[in-house]
Amino acid sequence: MTFQNTREFAQSLDAQDELRKYRDEFHFPHVNGKQVIYFTGNSLGLQPKRTKTYVDEVMNDWANLAVEGHFYSDKPWWDYQERFAVPLSDIVGAKPTEVGVMNTLTVNLHLLMVSFYNPTPHKYKIICEEKAFPSDQYMFQSQVKFHGFDPKDAIVEIKRREGEANIRLEDVLAKIEEVGSELALVLIGGVNYYTGQVFDMKTITAAGQNQGAYVGWDLAHAAGNIKLELHDWNVDFAAWCSYKYMNSGPGNASGFFVHEKHHNDKELKRFAGWYGHNKERRFKMEPDFDPVHGADGWQISNLPILSLAPYLASVEMFAEVGMDKLITKRNLITAYLEFILHEIDKELEGADFEILTPANQEERGCQLSVYLHGQGRELFERLMKNGVITDWREPNVIRLAPAPFYCSYEDMYEFGQILKKLISNK
Is 136 annotated as a binding residue? Predict the structure, then answer.
């Protein structure tokens, strides 16, 4: 498609947008009395309007039924989480028995590492990417220390080449082969939070497993954003938060995946709890743990229903639309935003932008990380005051994520006009 940097062209794309009605299903903040242009769905998604209905339903059941809500509400609480199995499996490319919801992201990664990181004196190293999200870095450090290893030795980071913004696949594969028999675990962010680079999860998973290691993925920036096929890629485990592209609310519950090949492995360690116990016998209060078959057998505690209600509202919205349609719009709107940035770069002296995110659509989702040469945090702050909600990352990067559920093509055009004006009036 040949793009044009005009409002009329942007409006024509919106008129053809199959998902345009969903924009009205979200609450937008306002700045100076005007609805914002929202680019931070990669940090916290907007609130769907239907969320309140789901939360109110739980609150009303609690008020009217009290403890009996566990069994007699319209969506009984004791198996509330089972409603996520089908929609989540479609979002991440899994079987319904391979996915579940519990806790929050880093908690789930720690719990999954109980099963999938059991180092020995000769097989103890973890491969991750350079500049992994800090929570992952802290998790790795604490895990290897817990097992008695030195993080400087046990944690192997795959680094970018000098002068390059992204990590090359061949460098990932070379590092996996180099670590070889010492490799216990590969655990990488499926989409790098800083650059927006999408890793080749299928190829990396196979390479790690060829060395006898487990391979897991932190899908915080991937779930609800990119096409995932966790079952077919033979991924051992994964976890993701729900408050970014899946719009479930701040700090909300995490989804997780455990491949079915591990479901019957009685030698695989796990931390146990009441809600992971055999569902049919759970209320018999038996002393010995008998795990639920499937991913739900990794659950520990009673589920936080008030947190799950907004998440359920969101995944049911995903089920209505499907990932294929979201990805089709994501590709087009991200390409249009990229075009707008390049146009401004050409038009204005001093607008020296470097897009760190790969240009290849197969290697990115809906985030563009833009290095602002010659600009500073002041530009970011002025954008915010002008109703453009973006995300700042040191030393000089703004992250722009045009989430396809609620961002419009006219938003992209309007952003370009605001950005051009702010740079011109610097």
Answer: yes
For the stretch 331-367, pLDDT in tens is 999 999 999 999 998 888 766 789 999 999 999 999 9
Which amino acid is present at 405?
Answer: F
Which pair of tokens denotes residue 267?
Answer: 């030698």
* Residue 3: CB atoms within 10 Å: 18
pLDDT tens, position by position, 313-339:
999 999 999 999 999 999 999 999 999
Tell me whether residue 334 is annotated as binding. Answer: no
Virtual CA dihedral for 173, 179, 184, 189, nearest 10 degrees?
-40
Structure tokens at 413: 């055009």
| 105 annotated as belonging to a binding site for a ligand | yes
Question: What's the pTM value of the predicted model, to 2 decimals?
Answer: 0.96
Is 221 marked as binding a ligand?
yes
Phi, psi of 294 (to 5 degrees): 105, -170
Environment class of residue 300 by beta-carbon count within 10 Å: exposed (0-12), middle (13-18) or buried (19+)? middle
135 annotated as ligand-binding: yes
Per-residue pLDDT at 38 exceeds 80: yes
